[in-house]
Sequence to fold (147 residues):
Amino acid sequence: WALPGLAGAMVRAGRTGRAGGRGLYLWRQGRPLPDPEVEPLLAAWRRGAGMGPGAAPVTGDEIAPAVLAALAAEGARLIGAGRAADAGAVDLLAMAVLGLDAGRDGPMSRAAEQPADLTAALSARIAGALPPARRGFWRGAAEISRG
Fold:
């Protein structure tokens, strides 16, 4: 059995994470430090996975909107497949399963509050960096953002 994807590539390169002292970061005295050897490993993995070489990474400010777009896209698929009654049901399920704060809105209502152009542009950029067979999910997220 082989660990797939990026995690497998890291393990094969001897990067087992905190326990081994290096993974995506160098671990020193329990703290993660940047590792200059990681970027070439990531670039090689991206090429092997068919991802575009010039793909811009998701920035820190884009992580939360990207996660919300992904959750909302999957929620819309659940509704479309008849596995959830509506967006409210998806939000309740997400709050229960993901441990989201029950006092706040779930991913469907929060994603609906995000600017549609931000979600669509971010989703399109992420989709463009992926191999064609893996782009559909993010194109779906862009569609959800447009209503």
Remarks:
- The mean pLDDT is 80.
- Residues 69 and 118 are 10 Å apart (CA to CA).
- Strands lie at 26-28, 31-33.
- The two ends are 42 Å apart (CA to CA).
